[in-house]
Each structure stands twice: as structure tokens, then as C-alpha cells.
């Protein structure tokens, strides 16, 4: 067994375990914002988009909580200003209300609303989802033909959502890897697809700040 990959895998799983402890305390989970500072140098978004995604997640979570309280359990994940909503709500009306609230958040460009009308998941289910997320991330790290930092992974009720700015080849390969992880029931791809030429140009260019994003004031 390669010791380097083993350490990388354990590090990812340790991060997932920490996320699980936070999820147990807070019904609204903010996707991936805690490690933005670490990933900023290798992320395929501009630095402005990364900061803006973090702000979108925080503001959307706050507004959902203020509007709907404990009636919903919603995970808000933003990647390059595309927002993924997962979780549970007590009615179809609440599902739509969640989306309406998120649309009021500054700089949101599109929304994928996959909040289910059902009872809120148990702590054990959320812990299992967090563990699956960790295993998928570890598998992406172990893959030699992918850049794991290009992907954001979210799991809800054993369904894995993959986000990122990737090529068709990368999207297909990542989905195959995720489907092979024990416990994964389904894989949903929420990608911004790049051509191989676009990716080559981006990787050759320096990471830049997004002026429009940087100048937009954040509101709670």
C-alpha cells in the first residue's frame, strides 16, 4: 500500500469526521467553506468566485433559517455562483419558499433545487452521508488521472452530488469513481463543463481576482 496515499485518504476522512460533528449541532450545513483558504491556490474558480461562493452559502443559510426556522433541513452548496440545495422540507410549498429565499441572495446565478418533501433525516443518516462524502473525496484523491481539488462533493440520503468546473472526461471518470464507493445509491452530476482547450488555457493562466465579485458588498 502506498503510504502517501494512505495519509491523504486518512486526512480526508478526518476532515469528514469533523464535518459530521458540526452537522450534528447545526441543521443548516454550509458546504465546504471551511477549507477555502487551503484550496484557493489550486481551485479552478477565480479567487473572487471562491470568496463569493462562501458568502452565498452563509447568507443563504441565514435567510433560510430566519424565514423557515426548524421546518426545513437544508444544505446550501455554492460553486462558481451555482447553488445546489439539498435536504428535506415538510411541504412542497416550503421547498419552493427555500428556492425563493435563495434567489434573493446577491450574486446567485443559478439554482439546482433537490430538497425533498419528507421528514428530516436522522443524525445517523447525516453521519452516514458525511462518511460517504469522505470516502468519495478520498477516492478522488487516490485517482491518478484526476485533480481532486476540481471537485466539490455533497451527499444527501446516500445520493452523491458532484460539482466543479471539469471536462467531459473528468465528469465521467469522477462519476464512475463515486458510484464504486460502498453505500452510494445514486450519483448526480452538477458540473460546469469545460472543453479540453478551455481547461488547458485556464491551467496555463495565472489565478486572478474577479473584479465584479470583489466589489459586490455582502449583506447578511
From TrEMBL:
**Pfam families membership:** BON
Question: In this protein, which residues make up the domain named BON?
Answer: 52-119, 128-195
Which of UniProt's keywords are assigned here?
Answer: Signal
Q: Which domain of life is it from?
A: Bacteria
As given in the record, the signal peptide range reads: 1-19
* Protein name, UniProt field: Osmotically-inducible protein OsmY, contains BON domain
Amino acid at each position: 500500500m502506498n503510504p502517501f496515499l494512505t495519509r491523504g485518504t486518512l486526512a480526508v476522512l478526518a476532515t469528514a469526521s469533523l464535518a459530521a460533528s458540526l452537522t450534528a449541532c447545526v441543521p443548516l450545513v454550509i458546504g465546504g467553506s471551511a477549507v477555502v483558504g487551503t484550496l484557493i491556490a489550486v481551485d479552478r474558480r477565480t479567487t473572487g468566485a471562491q470568496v463569493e461562493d462562501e458568502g452565498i452559502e452563509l447568507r443563504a443559510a441565514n435567510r433560510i433559517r430566519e424565514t423557515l426556522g426548524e421546518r426545513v433541513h437544508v444544505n446550501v452548496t455554492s460553486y462558481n455562483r451555482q447553488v445546489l440545495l439539498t435536504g428535506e422540507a415538510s411541504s412542497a410549498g416550503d421547498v419552493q419558499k427555500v428556492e425563493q429565499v435563495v434567489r434573493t441572495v446577491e450574486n446567485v446565478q443559478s439554482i439546482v433545487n433537490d430538497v425533498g418533501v419528507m421528514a428530516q433525516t436522522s443524525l445517523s443518516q447525516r453521519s452516514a452521508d458525511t462518511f460517504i462524502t469522505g470516502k468519495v473525496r478520498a477516492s478522488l484523491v487516490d485517482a491518478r488521472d484526476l485533480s481532486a481539488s476540481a471537485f466539490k462533493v455533497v451527499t444527501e440520503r446516500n445520493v452523491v452530488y458532484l460539482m466543479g468546473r471539469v471536462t467531459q472526461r473528468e465528469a465521467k471518470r469522477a462519476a464512475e469513481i463515486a458510484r464504486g464507493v460502498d453505500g452510494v445509491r445514486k450519483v448526480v452530476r452538477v458540473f460546469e463543463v469545460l472543453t479540453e482547450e478551455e481547461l488547458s488555457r485556464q491551467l496555463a493562466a495565472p489565478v486572478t481576482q474577479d473584479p465584479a465579485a470583489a466589489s459586490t458588498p455582502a449583506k447578511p
